[in-house]
Amino acid sequence: MADDSLIQTTSPQSKLVGCAQGLYGSACQHQLVIIMSMSFVFVDGPNNGSCISLLGNNRSTVPVRKMPTVGDTGVFLLTGGCAIAQTHRADFKSGDAIVGCNVIVVY
């Protein structure tokens, strides 16, 4: 389960714009692959109350990953898109990570 901060930039001091809520689990016996269902819930700015949801494999060892958006709400209703994720920092001992995610949505 996840309920993480969604911030504007990869800096830990960046402005909070929402939260990343969802779940993920191991999806492969031979490499680090996570299957995830994650919603980016916006709580500030023009997207306040809206949500973009991701669903699919997240191959954590690949530098740049692409995942589809599904089930978007609010200002993103009836959009389709793709999230492009890149890990900026990871601490496997604590389980903390900072992942940059650019999302492209098409109306």
Automatic annotation (TrEMBL):
Native source species: Citrus unshiu (Satsuma mandarin)
Record family assignment: Belongs to the plant dirigent protein family.
Primary localisation category: secreted
Assembly with partners or alone: Homodimer.
Domain of life: Eukaryota
Name of the protein in question: Dirigent protein
GO CC field: apoplast
Compartments (UniProt record): Secreted, Extracellular space, Apoplast
Role description: Dirigent proteins impart stereoselectivity on the phenoxy radical-coupling reaction, yielding optically active lignans from two molecules of coniferyl alcohol in the biosynthesis of lignans, flavonolignans, and alkaloids and thus plays a central role in plant secondary metabolism.
UniProt keyword terms in alphabetical order: Apoplast, Secreted
InterPro entries membership: Dirigent (IPR004265)
